[in-house]
Amino acid sequence: MSARAHWDDRYRAGDHAGREPCAFLEEIAPLLPERGRALDLAGGAGRHALWLARRGLEVTLVDVSPVALELARGRADEAHLPLELRALDLEHDALPPGPWALACTFHYLERSLFARLAALLEPGAWLVATQPTVTNLERHARPSRRFLVEPGELATLAETAQATPDGSAAFELVRYREAWSPEGVHQAELVARRRGVARSA
């Protein structure tokens, strides 16, 4: 079964998160921009994308599942919020072109994303990511180990992403933590900033 069919089936069955953003996103809200273009990767039915749109950002939600995107469209219409939707397989398809002021991914592991985003985020832009760690297996059987990061791995993926062919680092870590979340998941939580001089307001 393809990834698209798998997730379509899960969303049809009602297997998706609620409408409220995760606690970590609300916690770091003071750091994040309130205008500009934002990219929510593997964003499902849009709970984070809609939160960002309410802040005033121009949000593009990317997910492999058209069923999830239809749910997001309905929620956006209900809330009278603009939201651009893109059905893409992040393992194979190109990311929507930048520049972006913010990119985020929650509980989606595609290790190549950090290097790909380095080329699309504008200088001074924010990168937010969370991913369950192997410690999560102490309490939960899912996600399986193939979808979990090792201790420190999420930080390393950001720190080693290159901005240019000369090998300069693309991101500066602003915040990194590995802990049990209020939702009961042991996860790595990352906030990083694209190196370079941000555009003036």
CATH-defined topology:
Rossmann fold
Largest sheet: 7 strands, mixed
Could you give me the name of the CATH homologous superfamily?
A: Vaccinia Virus protein VP39
Distance between the termini: 47 Å
Question: How many alpha or pi helices?
Answer: 6
User: How much strand content do the residues show?
Assistant: 25-35%
Query: In angstroms, what is the radius of gyration?
Result: 16 Å
Number of strands: 7
Major sheet: arrangement of strands: 3-2-1-4-5-7-6
Mean pLDDT comes to: 92
Question: What sort of overall outline do the alpha carbons produce when their principal axes are compared?
Answer: globular
- Strand pairing plus helix content: what structural class? alpha/beta
Description of the molecule:
The chain is of the alpha/beta class and 201 residues long. It has a single domain, classed as Rossmann fold (3-Layer(aba) Sandwich). Helix content is 25%, strand content 26%. The protein has 6 helices and 7 strands; from the N terminus they run H-H-E-H-E-H-E-E-H-E-H-E-E. Strands 3-2-1-4-5-7-6 form a 7-stranded mixed sheet, sandwiched between helices. The termini are far apart.
